[in-house]
Amino acid sequence: MSATHGDNHDHDHGHHKETFITKYIFSQDHKMISKQYLITGLIMGIIGIAMSILFRMQLAWPDHQFTIYEILLGKFGEDGVMDPSIYLALVTIHGTIMVFFVLTAGLSGTFSNLLIPLQIGARDMASGFLNMISYWLFFLSSVIMVLSLFAEAGPASAGWTIYPPLSALPQAIGGSGTGMTLWLVSMAIFIASSLLGSLNYVVTVINLRTKGMSMTRMPLTIWAFFVTAIIGIVSFPVLLSAALLLIMDRSFGTSFYLSDIYIQGEVLHNQGGSPVLFEHLFWFLGHPEVYIVLLPALGITSEIIATNSRKPIFGYRAMVASILAIAFLSTIVWGHHMFISGMNPFLGSVFTFTTLLIAIPSAVKAFNYITTLWKGNLQLNPAMLFSIGLVSTFITGGLTGIILGDSTLDINVHDTYFVVAHFHLVMGISALYGLFAGVYHWFPKMYGKMMNKNLGYVHFWVTAIGAYGVFFPMHFIGMAGLPRRYYTNSNFPYFDDLADTNVLITVFALITAAGQLVFLYNFISSIFYGKKAIRNPWNSNTMEWTTPVEHMHGNWPGEIPHVYRWPYDYSKTNENGEYVIAGQDFVSQITPLQDGEEEMHH
Amino acid sequence: MTVFLTIVVIALFVITLWQMSKILKLSQLKNADDSQVANDKDNNTQGKLMLAFVIFMYLLTIYCFVQYRSFFLPESASEHGVDYDQLMLISMVLIMFVQIITQGLLHFFAYKYRGKKENKALFFADNDKLEFIWTIIPVIVLAGLIIYGLFTWTDIMNIDEKEGDPLIVELYAYQFDWRARYSGEDNVLGKANVRYIEGINTLGVDASDSYGKDDKITTELHLPVNRKVIFKMRSQDILHSAYMPFFRAQMNVVPGMITEFSYTPTMTSEEMRNSDFMVEKVATINKIRREKSKKLVAAGDEALETYVFDYYLLCNKICGVSHYNMQMKIVVESEEDYEAWLKTQQTFGEQLSAQASN
Question: A545 at the B interface (CB within 8 A)?
Fold first, then answer.
């Protein structure tokens, strides 16, 4: 099928004229859409990180006045004093933007779009049109989310988990008025976008693989994107229903989540609902969401570590199996966010069991990464550094998950800074590292230019030291019982001796955020002034490096190449100890088996 | 001022980086390797930095554990808390062990096998035995942790009102404060619903329920030491969470339902206050407060009060603008002191009739 398609395509090519609008704005080309995702995601990331800087400053110097609050927050920062309500709003929107807009759309959207067709040997996504719609819905939801920052009573401020009744009642907090409405609208559109994207990814992976590209010859990136898309399809609709019911409760007087409420001198009519129901629905997405964020990063890392170690990824089949195991388990562990929510304690036991089970495939992955490095010939490019960094933060953050996933231990660290440190390391920082690694590695494919490696090194080391500087000490203030989402800790003299640590964390946060400017500078200047890339700068095996540097519609001129081997034949030798292809330590997937060569897998 | 300095420092830092990169770029031109792909020299530097980084991580870990050891909560003031702390200690030791080994290996390999042109990587794609080993080890270890954890969890969460002579107390949460309602002589709480809230009946106790007449509503939580207490939690408006860190206790307070938590306090406030840990901790805190007060007084503000330790209950579920200050004092005292204190509190019935006679 692909061959005929290819032939037709050659004839088509050059006929259809591309205007500026069809090429750069309403493009249906997966490569352009991926760039659109990346840039939108980066812009949202700048907003999200800037917000974290503001509230970190508030936490470090609660009784200081900062003119910057007045400039950026307007009436919520009068005289340089941050209003407690805007503090909560910043925390809420920071979480929402980083989780959904940067790490879901920015990471998965960018690299699924770029790599799925290129690495499986397809001309484009199964439906270019739906793909375009998916991006523009994402764009629309981003715009609405940003607009919600300007709501008069403040943006949504019930935490990114938007637990009702707080999120349902404008009487309880100003941000639950217009701000919350816009939040819900934005998220509803976001979910639609995510679903269209995910369906497209799944269909493309199943149907459009080139000849020879069996499922077991797919690069781990594709496995990760594929499984991520499936988890997204399973769990995002549940968030949509949770949001819909919340909209009903807010606007149409239903009582799905509300019962027995007396607020502002008035008894509400609502009866019979339960906030715990919302928690169940929310976390049914919320937990898989962690893996929606993380799996693509792990996929990207697998590919980059193998390429730069000049070694096959260790235990390919175990890696695929653990992706599948993690995906399956991720849908049955949501209750570990709710051990002390008031749900039946017996459920707590079940969720402890499933949660600690998920540590097993995660451990397998970590060990396999480490073994891949063993006896490699490591090419320490910036992408490789970020990948190693990811494995490091994934282990550090994952280990504390063993404490939080244990219902007993969760009792006393639940909702403290210990949790904040845990999830930032294991999903926030790890996924960000995955994003950076991907950008450094596939920048030549996206823009035809190389990023500056020295700036990349500076970026990595500032970020690596900064990230641990921020989140490692944070575990300890959490162990002291310091609750998260407190505008200031000064109302509890018991926490007075933690103040210095909070300052330290903020200073590290400021430095780390400043370090990201190096990346931005490198990214933008390389697009325009970067060194021109060659076709396969990293000597990689996967198919995207067989396409011409100059982008073209349809990816390959002429026929789509066939695939003859798995993507990890790095440093493969014949029995005489010579490389399979003399003088070259890699064998592209499109190279047929050589004389006397054995296919060692499948 | 500090802020200004911080911003200047950051700005300078950025400029330094930028300049450094320029220097690097200029020096690169001579080498004529502008491929932007790591060469042997880069691999060498970055590999060594990786080794330096894991040393940094170890130092950071040691620094945190030494410097921040006073951050850890003192020994538990509740009976089940002892088991909690034990399980926490075992888990902590375990994860720190794994952390140190795996981080060490990861970064050491990154250093040891840093690339050189003449080196050859080992084609090593699979080893069933190895993979089996590192699947089965986590399975066994985690199974142990799960079983241990689940026994402790069941012990803590299995609340039996008939066993012993537990004290029944309602914790009532609203934006942004707490109330405690003692069940009185009959040890049974009167019925309550937000729909009964009216005037001084701020907790919505059903005035027609005779069980409620002897209930006592207080602003502090007093508990007799060594007697099991069962908390029945109720919220008036939105989600709150009753977090009592010194007792290793936390439960969300949910509007529309009654949640429960139970523990037996084992240390009075006095005992905790006089423990070595707390004496030292409070001294440090008061030193910090005195320093701060000096600055405040110089600026014409009031000095901070000297801190005296008391147990507290705090809200740990985001609940609105004053979430950060939703707290209640907890006093654990001897049975006699507790009884004496309770006598001084008005019953709900007395409150109602006092209001009626006004």
Answer: no
